[in-house]
Amino acid sequence: MAEGMIPLGEKLTRSAQATPDAPAVSCGETTRTWRQLEAHANRIARALEGLGVKLGDLVTIGLPNGVDFIEASWGVWKLGATPQPVSFRLPRAELQAIVDLADPAVLIGLPSIDTNRRRVTVEDLLALSDDDRPLRSRVSPVSKALTSGGSTGRPKLILAGTPGLTIAEPESPSFCRFRRGGTALIPGPLYHSGPFGCAMEAITSDPIWC
After folding, report:
1. I need a labelling partner for 1 at 20 to 30 A (CA). Which of 50, 91, 140, 161 fits?
2. Any bridge partners for residue 145, and if so which?
3. Cα separation values, 21 from 25, 33, 181, 197, Å
4. Domains of the chain, earliest start first
5. H or E element: which one contains 157?
6. Positive or negative CA dihedral for 149, 189, 86, 10?
7. Higher-pLDDT residue of 151, 84
């Protein structure tokens, strides 16, 4: 592991320990503090592990923007697995083609999503585990796996060339100019690379975001 870098899951744990009751993420009327986000991510991670998700696995996430999306992503990172976001509006044939490529043990998505893989909601996962203790630190070999639109043929997976690591203590604003204690608004769909990357960076930079 590079000097000064820590796993994404460990970064969330440290933020929860430093400012447990500060707001971490909001969407509409729903807000999670750092303590709550950490607790839910740990429970989701243990539930996913119980469903067979392992280090390095891809986990497809088909959710609209919201707190559930963030909790699901961090639960996946806590296991050292890779979030693989897709549009929750995809036609079944296109979604199934992506799922066949990703080969996830589990798809986290809306009840309306239909594939040949086991589909669970965030609520389902939280019901499967009430153990919210921090997990042993694990590093995903691939931080994220997005998809192409399939405009030149069948859909394709785009695997990030970086592992699931972040700077432990950033000494300057992030690439997106996020500062600790600031507020970041992410209006774009999180299944696209730019908004997803900004959301990940916002959490690891410790601003409040919505």
Report:
1. 50
2. 159
3. 12, 5, 13, 25
4. 5-16+30-209 (3.40.50.980)
5. strand 157-159
6. positive
7. 84
Structure token digits, residue 52? 């067979």
What's at 45, amino acid-wise? A
Q: Which one-letter DSSP state was computed for residue 35?
A: H
Q: pLDDT tens for residues 29-58?
A: 999 999 999 999 999 999 999 999 999 999
User: Does pLDDT of 147 surpass 50?
Assistant: yes
The pTM assigned to this predicted structure is 0.92
Count Cβ atoms within 10 A of the Cβ of residue 35 and give its class: 0-12 exposed, 13-18 middle, 19 or more buried.
middle
Q: Are 61 and 69 in contact (CB under 8 A)?
A: yes
Contact 161, 4 (CB under 8 A): no
H or E element, residue 159: strand 157-159
Cβ distance 106 to 93 under 8 Å? Answer: no
CA dist., res. 88 & res. 133, Å (int)? 30
CA atoms of 200 and 126, how far apart (whole Å): 21
CA dist., res. 88 & res. 86, Å (int)? 6
Q: How many residues does the chain have?
A: 210
CA dihedral 87, 89, 93, 98 (to 10 degrees): 10
Tokens, residue 49:
């592990």
